[in-house]
Amino acid sequence: MSHVNATTFTIVVILFLVVTLIGFAAARWRRAEDMLHLNEWGLAGRGFGTFITWFLLGGDLYTAYTFIAVPALVFGSGSIGFFAVSYTIMAFPIAFIFLPRLWSVSRVHNYITPADFIRGRYGSRGLSLSMAFTGILSLMPYIALQLVGIQAVLTVMGVGTSSTNTYVKDLPLFIAFLVLAIYTYVSGLRAPAAISFVKDTLIYVFVLVAVFYIPTRLGGWSHIFGTAQTHFAAINPETKKPNGTFIPTSHAIGSTQLDFATLALGSAMALFVYPHIITGTLASRRRKFVKRNMSLLPAYSILLGLIALFGYMAVTDPVTAANVKKSGNAQLAVPYLFQHMFPSWFAGIAFAGIIIGALVPAAIMAIAAANLFTRNIFKEFFKPDASPALETKMSQWASLVVKLGALVFAVELPHTFSINLQLLGGVWILQISPMLVGGLYTRWFHRWALLTGWLAGMIYGTIAAYNVKSATTSHWAASSDIVFGHTVYIGLTALVINAVIAVVLTLILKAAKVPAGADETLPHQYTADPEQAPVPQPAGVGLGSVSD
Amino acid sequence: MAAPPSAPRGPQDSTITRTQNPVAAHPITSAAIGLLVTAAIFCTLFVPIYARITPKIGAFPFFYFYLLAYMPLVALDLWVVTLLQRRLRKPGTADGGAR
Asked: Domain A57-433: which topology?
């Protein structure tokens, strides 16, 4: 270990230990008599009120991606990074439209994963499998991104062995992740829910302190914005282009406005179809708690706006800018800024906040992916008669495997890559929105049409993202692409292709009278607000549940 | 194994059955809800509205001020929508009474 600040390090370790204790103790929190049901491990008994749901969803939505990658993008490219602010604004009205419906129908039918709903709505195992597959696929890089966030903090702290072997070098990261994996295994969704209280307190404290304190050290907001404006207008000698944009530009001078808007819209639409967010939502006790949270959660987004501004602070502070340049990794902008600006004890609190802020969503994501695997792949295709206890065991083990996979992702891939992989995850997950969001409103779409549309969207999105080049990398350089002369978020283009195919094929398949499959849901179930969760029954997903 | 997953509060449970379409019953409230939700999305989606440096609010260029100020407004907007939605439920139905 080289030049580790003892104070910072001690505070981070203490807070990490506190969180670990909470994680294990959470197993006893709101404990049910029968823990061996997936409703318990995977959805914490579906019993959370407005308050806990707020913390849980807040912890779930605002990840290390938010604290590290968004300011890093702002640091590197300027105003385009603020698409993240715009997208979290849009996400809530969009979610407000469909999320309560998903909650209701899932509660009535005791669906645990979004793929359970797809299965029940369309009576199609193939469609449900495609949903589960997409969910797991897009969660992997998202979890990996949390690790990259932790890694960024650890790098700046100087923690890590000097070995050239990446696996030895990242030993502290492995230990942190192993601990996380074990308490998630033990406590299920209760662990991240309990820890999110600590996480949010830390984050609120350090963000508010940073926003008021750092500008006084950097000569005020006018100076920060002024420096950023000059910096991004300057021509980069290597690329012969401006460093970035201070305000999204209109079409006359090379549009970034459309890029900004489509990135924001695409990400906003993707946000609430991510399985981990749906997991957090389904854990809520009442429909009205979900709705109420849509107007309470924007309080969090104000934080995001402020966090994005850290990118400009990093541009303004010459020491931070030089450090980042030396390391060649923009992800380090925020950790370096805090290290330079704060006394070491407060830097410790901020770093612990970021690390814990990565652990909470990573746990929920692993649980969501594990539930998808257990319910919609393992039980559906391999062991239809799996008992609730076996389902829970399976999910617990699957959560470990998912975390391991993410770890390999994080260590093996270059870091610029992982940010884009997350955006690629967004491209993928968007492709399930026609079947999921569409399905919440109408049964008009034909299941095979949706499946074909999904496949087309996935293939187009992956290939298009793969082919994006930049000055430094030949593939996966960004998640925007040029369509008809405009720079547009690939996810959205793929979604349009997906939807058009779904509509056209539905018309054809309906004309050909291809069987549409059974639908076990009824219209009024989408607005129902049953007070208690249905008593868990072993039957699980299956057709013909409405036969009684 | 024989019991369907939804048996205890299943589809036939009368407390969660609603027969009347609330949108048809309250066209004005429904339109207001639709407008409020759409406006919240549109005003951040349509970037040219706020992609400008001036007028500056304090030290903040308009673009940045707008995005930060939008957050509390969208929270308020959705809160009003939840209140309006309560009016959609007819008093006396099981759904309204359950609240």
From this structure: Sodium/glucose cotransporter (1.20.1730)
